[in-house]
Amino acid sequence: MSDNTAHAQDRPLWEAMRKGFRRKCPNCGSGPMMKSYLKVRDTCTVCREDLSHHRADDGPAYLTILIVGHIMAPALHIVFTTWRPEPLVLFTIFAIGCVTLSLYLLPRLKGAIVGFQWARLMHGFTAH
Predict the structure, then answer these.
(1) What is the helix (H) or strand (E) element at residue 96, kind and residue range?
(2) CA–CA dist 109, 92 (Å, integer)
């Protein structure tokens, strides 16, 4: 077993992803991971963990679209077949719902992906 594999097992994956979803440092869980809506800090303000190695790229956007689509499409069908609202009302409600859910999930999923990369020692994250 390689040295990185042994250290990656010391970093609990789901705990790191949970901390990341809360937009907290995957190492200490208390320092804020983000310095703006989607900008990840280079280092944690509490434990000084280096977070500059993350490579979240388009992953959070794809996951956000996947989740929002899988929630809103069935909801749209159920609402339409049950209540038959006016088209403008239906559009307004679901447009606001899609945008709100997307804006809520995007930074949280980015944090979870950074937590995943940190736990698996990907892209330059190293064990101390």
Answers:
(1) helix 87-119
(2) 25
Domain membership of residue 57 (yes or no) is yes
**What phi and psi values does residue 36 have, to the nearest 5 degrees?**
-150, -165
Please count the structural domains in the chain: 1
Residue 125 lies in a domain: no
Please give the Cα distance from 119 to 73 (Å, whole number).
33
- Domain presence at residue 42: yes
Domain around 76: 3-119
Instruction: Please report how many Cα atoms fall inside a 13 Å half-sphere around the Cα of residue 82, on the Cβ side.
Output: 7
Q: Which two tokens stand for residue 49?
A: 């963990």
Q: What is the pLDDT of residues 7-54, one digit of tens each?
A: 556 899 999 999 999 999 999 999 999 999 999 999 999 999 999 999
Calculate mean pLDDT across residues 77-101: 97
126 lies in a domain? no
